[in-house]
Design goal:
Length: 667
């Protein structure tokens, strides 16, 4: 994809207009240009670096376009930081000029998401000048980001290296971001990667006087105060509607409680329910900067029907619910006297009626597709159903809430370039406009995958997973980027197999059951088997024995590469993946010799070795996880998260010891 990185070898000597030293454009080699572009993230759609100009720190003048845009002021400030100050015109050796609109910007109008598109072009005729051109402040802000990344990548404490370049760039997906976890603590970092949408669940409920309240939690206020500086829109979330009853709602309005066994279901025939949601919407839409609210439809009815009162029982509860949300939206807009965008998020509970829900929605209502078993999913499978694609084709803004962590409730290190690349390419190919990713418990646990999501939601066809890994190593100053990419390629595939198999998380779900029990009963499924298309444990993401064996070898290779790299995070991750895949392989081999009737005497020695291997593998992962967490966790956080994982591992180890003993194998 570097065919677009044009490598001109023109020499040019320029004299700057101000009373400064002659400005010299230096040629750079093909390799140097390629290396320089690696400092950008995401990779611009088209970038050609033909040389560089070196000026003293503090000698670049920034000429912003007029106006009061917060974003333009921030762009100028960030650029000045990168250049070591904004030079007065008398001392400027080089100029960076913002251009909002104008004839040169017209060509951007035909690009997708043109409101975020930009050009950077170089003028070297008189004084040196880079011009940042866009149709909106957002576009200019992104032009400034790209330039900063390049300048910071190669400048020294005394000199600034300015690329002589031509860039044209625009994003594939209109909205790119995260919901939940600690996104509000990483806004600058996320904005630097051109993410532009963040969501968080709001503090909502009914107060002691029976009045609905809705607000941003105080610790999340950076989403209101800081996010606009980085071009990030904050969209508050109204929690899944079957989970709001306990927030003082049923206490004050017992009539809102649906007539069904489900403790949280609402009765949508009570007109007060729409009034309450409308009041939440009014309060949240009044938060400064808020233009969009995301209302999460009911997530899980646990097999119960919706309200069975006389008015509700003859209609699908999903349709009653969405009609209530739409009614609330209309009331809220009326009360506010202005428009705001409504986004609704689907779930596994709405899935059977999603098409009917879409049919109820006006065209300007956005939808994020979520399903806890399908979009929170690390399996090698496409996760966007065709009816969602059809809806996107009709022009509705459609999005998705996928996870980029090892699992949303079970955290192990995961550097998954090919996994994230695969997901984002599916989303872009299927015409989705909104990415609301989920990385829990925190961004820093999965910084690589989060950055990869920013990369490919902007430019899905740009960098390959390998090239992204190399560029990541360059940006983070990891020694030997090629070897880091070797490691990423190897670990990413085997970790994808492990986490996509819910190995080890599946132990908690009860489906298909605990490994030690299944082994004993002779009920371990076949490789590649996924129970009810939803529960892949223990090896549903591994298609056959050859792949399992290849995974074991890959993990060992990854560990070797990580040690050679001397990159401790990679070493810890490799140890976890190596331990867990070795345990899985031992389980698979045990499956061949353990019968419900026991183990044949001739297989006892092999069984003993395999039980030991299983336990040693899990123990290796178990011992590493707290060390890994210490490297990625915010030390100010009151809690750790690995305890939940190591507890499962301890349980698995002791259960397998018991199984071995019951089968007459003495460990
Ligand atoms: Zn009802």
């Amino acid at each position: 994809m570097y065919s677009r990185v044009c490598l001109l070898t023109l020499a040019a000597v320029l004299v700057c207009a101000a009373q400064c030293a002659p400005l010299t454009k230096k040629n750079i080699s093909q390799q140097e240009a390629l290396q320089w572009v690696r400092y950008t993230v995401p990779l611009p759609k088209s970038i050609k670096i033909s040389g560089q100009i070196i000026v003293p720190r503090g000698a670049v003048r920034i000429v912003p376009s007029p106006g009061q845009s917060v974003l333009l002021k921030q762009a100028a400030k960030e650029l000045a930081d990168a250049f070591g100050g904004n030079a007065p015109s008398s001392k400027a050796a080089f100029t960076v000029r913002f251009q909002l609109g104008g004839a040169e910007a017209d060509a951007l109008k035909k690009l997708k998401n043109s409101d975020q598109a930009y050009k950077i072009t170089t003028f070297l005729k008189k004084a040196g000048e880079l011009r940042l051109i866009a149709l909106t402040p957002n576009g200019l802000y992104y032009a400034a980001k790209t330039l900063q990344q390049l300048v910071r990548g190669r400048s020294t404490p005394s000199s600034i290296r300015i690329p002589v370049l031509e860039v044209t760039d625009w994003p594939d997906m209109a909205q790119r971001g995260l919901w939940g976890a600690d996104n509000y603590e990483h806004l600058k970092w996320l904005g630097d990667r051109k993410m532009n949408i963040m969501e968080q669940i709001s503090a909502i409920g009914v107060d002691a006087q029976g009045k609905p309240f809705a607000a941003v939690r105080p610790d999340r206020m950076p989403l209101v105060t800081e996010a606009p500086l980085y071009g990030i829109e904050f969209a508050p979330v109204i929690l899944h509607l079957e989970q709001v009853g306990r927030l003082g709602v049923f206490e004050h309005y017992p009539e809102f409680k649906g007539k069904t066994e489900h403790p949280g279901a609402l009765c949508y025939s009570q007109p007060g329910v729409a009034d309450m949601i409308a009041e939440w919407m009014v309060q949240l839409a009044s938060v400064p900067g808020v233009k969009t609210l995301d209302c999460w439809l009911t997530e899980n009815m646990h097999g119960q029907p919706g309200c069975q009162c006389d008015k509700c029982k003859n209609e699908k509860w999903q349709l009653l619910e969405v009609r209530t949300v739409l009614k609330a939206w209309e009331k809220a807009k009326q009360k506010l006297g202005r428009y705001f965008t409504l986004r609704v998020t689907t779930s596994e509970a709405t899935e059977p009626e999603n098409k009917a829900i879409f049919a109820e929605l006006p065209p300007d209502v956005q939808v994020t597709y979520y399903h806890s078993l399908l979009t929170y999913n690390n399996r090698r499978m496409q996760i966007i159903p065709s009816y969602v694609v059809e809806e996107a084709k009709k022009g509705r803004w459609m999005g998705v809430i996928p996870n980029f962590c090892s699992h949303t409730g079970y955290w192990e290190p995961f550097t998954g370039a090919s996994f994230v690349h695969y997901r984002l390419n599916e989303f872009v190919d299927k015409g989705l406009k909104i990415l609301v990713g989920y990385v829990t418990p925190g961004v820093n646990y999965y910084r690589f995958n989060t950055e990869a999501a920013a990369e490919w939601s902007w430019n899905a066809k740009g960098r390959s997973p390998r090239e992204f890994a190399i560029s990541y190593a360059v940006r983070y100053d990891i020694k030997n980027p090629e070897k880091f990419a070797d490691w990423c390629e190897v670990i990413g595939e085997v970790a994808w197999d492990v986490y996509g198999s819910h190995w080890l998380y599946g132990e908690k779900t009860g489906h298909p059951g605990k490994a030690a029990d299944l082994l004993k009963k002779g009920e371990l499924p076949e490789l590649g088997s996924v129970l009810w298309d939803a529960f892949p444990a223990p090896w549903g993401n591994i298609k056959d024995e050859a792949r399992l064996n290849a995974d074991v070898q890959a993990a060992a290779k990854a560990l070797k590469l990580a040690k050679e790299l001397g990159y401790q995070l990679a070493v810890e991750e490799s140890l976890v993946v190596d331990g867990t895949i070795r345990a899985l392989k031992a389980l698979y081999e045990l499956r061949k010799i353990v019968r419900p009737t026991g183990i044949a005497p001739e297989h006892k020695p092999a069984a003993e070795r395999l039980f030991r291997e299983y336990i040693a593998g899990l123990k290796q992962a178990r011992d590493v996880l707290p060390r890994w967490e210490k490297m990625v966790r915010n030390p100010n956080w009151p809690t750790t998260y690995e305890d939940r994982v190591t507890e499962i591992l301890d349980g698995m180890i002791s259960e397998m010891k018991n199984t071995a003993a019951e089968l007459g194998v003495n460990l």
